[in-house]
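mind reviewing this stuff:

——
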Amino acid sequence: MTVDRRAVIAEFGELTAQKLTVSEMVDSLSKWGPTLGFAKETLRPLYLYYREGSGTGAHTPP
């Protein structure tokens, strides 16, 4: 089975990009997870791991 991703993306219509913090994304995904069936618990611990690791990550300036 082949899915034409272009058609699926086109169904969304015009979208305006929004600047979201990682915290806002985690909160939104945690809220939607149980409803959409991809997570039954909060994703907040992943955010905490991200924050802890980001201080020593490759994208951190020297």
